[in-house]
Design a protein that fits this description.
Elements (H helix, E strand, L loop, with lengths): L14 H6 L8 H8 L15 H31 L6 H34 L13 H4 L12 H31 L4 H4 L2 H24 L4 E6 L4 E6 L15 H36 L19 H32 L5 H13 L4 H8 L1 H12 L11
Antiparallel strand pairs: 1-2
Length: 392
């Protein structure tokens, strides 16, 4: 989210950082020998992990966040699946976004909780912990993958893929609403369920292919649990003190992120400009300052989007703003890392702010979408029978 995405170890993005960072990617041979003999790896003393109390508070925060993500998105999925009015292209896109968010709460966050609890109980880093991988020379014949297999090889791409799915889905939602705003008469013909489902499948396939790109197209990357971000991060395998020659493949991540976020912002600007123009026309018509005659062309009343379309566009604009705000700390962290800052504590804050965005969508729907609120009410009251003699 300029050199790497949220799950990428940014301190390793430049060679100068390798010698100065307090979060080294690959331990020396002596340190690895100590790990092999069963000796524990002393954790970095940071605000987020120094001391039993801080580790406990971190685990409590992670558990609470995982619970909020799973419950919120289960409710969202249930409402959209059971509500007939939600079986629209916009509803399908919201379901796709909820599934991506729920995968973060089901797989990514619980794995961090498990790792942190293991470190608290045993004080010995697991095999997937940062710096516990073997040297590049012994792994080159295996395509860069360490042995035994690390869970981070699954968790890291899942988080990256779900992040890309969220960005691409919000972009598709913005485009769908812009069609409803700019071309309301052609909305049903241009945005169909079949096309929407096809675009959703393509976005999932492209997102996870991109997440796996460093592992597929290069043999010089692995994934390890980073004690700064508390997540599984992409890690380049070092050759001496040098980064691999194909480390630039990670630039695909920020290129994808910023391209879609920039496109989403541009489409939102066009939509809200059109909404403002229509609102001004409506105000002039209500004041009698603008004639609505002229064979249907003067005021443009028949070509204006409906109130529900305008409100939905504003809701998606809020979703875009929330995601961009949660993404911004990662961008700041990347820029700081490129110029030489390590920011171990800030990396934890940045990565977990982005993770916390996975439980924000249900809050936005609850505030902005009356149909969603009604669906939630019916969901929790459906088991209550109506009073005797009252028809439902």
């Amino acid at each position: 989210m300029t050199a790497l995405i949220p799950n990428t170890s940014v301190p390793g993005s430049t060679a100068v950082l390798l010698a100065t960072t307090d979060c080294p990617f690959n331990l020396t041979a002596a340190t690895q020998a100590e790990l092999g003999s069963g000796r524990s790896l002393a954790p970095l003393c940071t605000v987020c992990c120094c001391g039993f109390l801080n580790r406990t508070l971190t685990v409590v925060f992670m558990v609470s966040l995982a619970f909020a993500i799973v419950v919120g998105n289960v409710v969202t999925l249930t409402v959209f699946v059971q509500t007939r009015q939600s079986r629209t292209p916009q509803g399908y896109l919201k379901v796709s976004l909820a599934i991506a968010d729920m995968m973060v709460g089901v797989l990514v966050v619980p794995f961090s909780v498990y790792t942190e609890i293991s470190l608290m109980v045993t004080s010995t880093p697991p095999i997937w912990y940062q710096g516990s991988s073997t040297s590049p020379a012994s792994t080159s014949s295996l395509g860069g993958l360490v042995s035994p297999w690390q869970p981070c090889m699954l968790i890291g791409p899942v988080f990256a893929g779900c992040t890309f799915v969220s960005i691409s889905t919000i972009f598709l939602m913005t485009v769908e609403r812009s069609v409803a705003i700019l071309r309301p008469l052609h909305k049903d013909a241009l945005v169909t369920r079949r096309r929407t489902l096809l675009l959703i499948l393509l976005s999932w396939a492209a997102s996870f292919l991109l997440a796996l790109a460093p592992l597929i197209f290069s043999s010089n990357f692995t994934l390890e649990y980073n004690e700064c971000s508390r997540m599984c991060n992409y890690t380049p395998l070092l050759f001496g003190s040098q980064l691999p020659p194909d480390a630039n493949i990670l630039l695909l991540f920020p290129a994808f992120d910023f391209t879609l976020l920039g496109g989403t912002l541009a489409v939102n600007i066009m939509s809200f400009t059109s909404i403002r123009r229509y609102s001004r026309k409506r105000k002039l018509l209500s004041e009698g300052s603008l004639s609505d005659g002229g064979g249907g062309g003067g005021g443009g009343c028949s070509h204006r989007p409906s109130f529900s379309d305008i409100k939905a566009a504003k809701t998606i604009g809020i979703l875009t703003f929330a995601f961009t705000a949660s993404f911004s700390p990662i961008a700041v962290f990347v820029l700081g890392s490129v110029v030489g800052y390590t920011w171990c504590n800030f990396s934890f804050i940045a990565f977990w702010i982005l993770t916390g965005n996975s439980c924000c969508n249900v809050i936005i729907y609850s505030v902005r979408d009356h149909r969603f609120r009604k669906g939630v009410t019916l969901l929790f009251l459906r088991d209550q029978s109506p009073p005797h003699g009252e028809k439902t």
